[in-house]
Design brief:
mainly alpha, Haem_Oase-like_multi-hlx, 5 helices, 170 residues, Iron-containing redox enzyme family protein, globular
Length: 170
């Protein structure tokens, strides 16, 4: 369901919804967090870090998703481009409790020696997100895209919103 909502948002913004369509345009720092999560998931010995990473993500995603919804609604994109993010406002608030209490709490209760690993996973998630955020803001303040390489002209239509503009400015 979430993948379908994300694809719908991409199409509403005039973007290609094919998986990995823009992979070559994304800076490495954006992919690093997903790579860390994958590494944690592939190694049983890193299960504490995996749980910590997942919990940190779930615990910090609901409020930013709400801000995206508010911003997109103010910019009035075509269709329901904001619907994917709106779904995550409530869903991630629920996931936050499950991840913190059940997933991490249960793991630490049964294996207390994994607490440092849980904290490592959380720190990796939050640290990588901070790097991506800083790089993105730096690019926008310089008046350029945060992408590694620009999208081809045919990759989006005239209906795509210029997110470098302040909200409410045409």
């Amino acid at each position: 369901m979430h993948a379908a909502l994300f694809a719908k948002a991409m199409r509403a913004l005039g973007l290609d919804d094919t998986p990995n369509a823009y992979l070559d345009h994304v800076p490495a720092v954006v992919l690093a967090n997903a790579n860390a999560l994958t590494m944690f998931g592939l190694h049983r010995r890193l299960r504490g870090a995996l749980c910590g990473h997942l919990a940190a993500f779930e615990m910090t995603s609901s409020l930013p998703a709400r801000k995206v919804v508010i911003g997109m609604q103010r910019l009035e994109p075509p269709g329901d481009a904001w619907e994917f993010f709106d779904e995550h406002v409530e869903a991630d608030a629920v996931h936050e409790q499950v991840a913190a209490r059940d997933l991490c709490g249960g793991l630490i209760e049964s294996e207390p020696t994994l607490l440092p690993d849980v904290l490592l996973g959380s720190a990796v998630c939050l640290g990588m997100d901070a790097l991506v955020g800083a790089r993105t803001v730096q690019a926008w303040e310089a008046g350029r895209s945060a992408l590694r390489t620009p999208l081809p002209d045919h990759a989006h239509s005239a209906t795509v919103i210029d997110l470098r503009r302040p909200l409410g400015v045409a």
